[in-house]
Amino acid sequence: MLALMDQTPEPVAVSDDDALIAQAAVAKLRPVAEARTDIRMVVQEQVDIVVPLPAAAVAQIFKILEAMATQTPVSIIPHDAKLTTQQAADYLNVSRQHLVNRLEAGDLPFEFVGSHRRIRYGDLLVYEGEQRSVSRAALQDMADIAQDLDL
Length: 151
Prior knowledge:
The structure is a single chain. The chain is 53% helix and 15% strand. It has helices spanning 16-35, 55-69, 85-92, 96-104, 121-148; strands at residues 39-44, 48-53, 82-83, 111-113, 116-120. It is extended and about 65 Å long. It has five helices and five strands. It is α+β, with helices and mostly antiparallel strands and 151 residues long. The chain has a three-stranded antiparallel beta sheet with strand order 3-5-4. Strands 1-2 form a two-stranded antiparallel sheet. The protein folds into two domains: 2-69, no CATH class; 82-148, Multidrug-efflux Transporter Regulator, Chain: A, Domain 2 (Orthogonal Bundle). 9% of the residues are buried.
């Protein structure tokens, strides 16, 4: 996924002090995130500012804070980001040629920008999920066969 960094801001990495703040925030926010509820966040500066946050945003903020608490760098990649074939192959951990073969076979949507193929990140996530399902089904079939044969 490192190849994606040229399309996204630098990953958020934090200091030890920031990690401690994030740990405290995670502890306070965990029950709210697990309850999947909307919240109103109060920012106390010179004047209180109340910011409504939908449950989906709370869940994402919680994930970011969890990563920050363990000092794990985080990047946010928009689903409509256009990736090169090399970036997409790096993400899937396959060779670029294998990915190009899958593109040409119609397994994954792409578009040409000039003479270069581009894959939308959201489409790549869908493809990855589909491939994981196919793999799980194949493993289950193998396990069923092994059980039928008393192996």
